[in-house]
Amino acid sequence: MAETTLFELVSPERLFFSEPVEMVVVPGTEGDFAALPHRAPLLATVRPGVIVIFAAGKPKERIFVAGGFAEVTEKACTVLAEEAALVSDLSPAAAEKRFDAANIAYQASLDGDDETMLRAENELLIAQAMVAAAKGDLAYH
User: Fold this and answer.
1) What is the pTM of this model?
2) Is the separation of the CB atoms in 36 and 73 below 8 Å?
3) Quick one: CA dihedral 27, 4, 79, 128, positive or negative?
4) 3-class DSSP state for residue 118?
5) Is 4 exposed, middle or buried (0-12, 13-18, 19+ CB in 10 A)?
6) Helix (H), strand (E) at residue 133
7) Smallest Cα–Cα separation from 4: which of 18, 65, 138?
């Protein structure tokens, strides 16, 4: 049996995932990174995208996250996500609807203050990543 590292994903609603995994790939703002057993410690911000959990050398589970923070130690990887959902549960139509609403809000925010525009831009990035995830436009198939 391969060595494992504990992976925990926590969303505001619940402990979304907690079990040993061979590897997990996290969408970091500085680029995707892998958490493996005995990895050097790391603190990173997470961009909107898909976390891929591997078992037996193949993707086992894909989880959409709307961003957050990750802490990696030699024995564990913990992600605190702003929002999380199984990719298999995402509806392409619902994701497109969210994107359209976010795009309208972003366009309207361009005439407003910087804080409103930044929030609208962040929601647009989340919606764009959700559309890609829902349609299966993933790097790890």
Assistant:
1) 0.91
2) no
3) positive
4) helix
5) middle
6) helix 114-134
7) 18
CB distance 66 to 81 below 8 Å: yes
Write out the chain's pLDDT in tens, 141 residues. 578 999 999 999 999 999 999 999 999 999 999 999 998 999 999 999 999 999 888 999 999 999 999 999 999 999 999 999 999 999 999 999 999 999 999 999 988 888 999 999 999 999 999 999 999 876 544
The fourth-level CATH superfamily of domain 5-87 is F0F1 ATP synthase delta/epsilon subunit, N-terminal (2.60.15.10)
Q: Which residues of 35-50 are buried (b: 16+ CB within 10 A; e: fewer)?
A: bbbebeeeebebbbbb
The neighbour count for residue 108, using CB atoms within 10 Å, is 12
Sequence length of the chain is 141
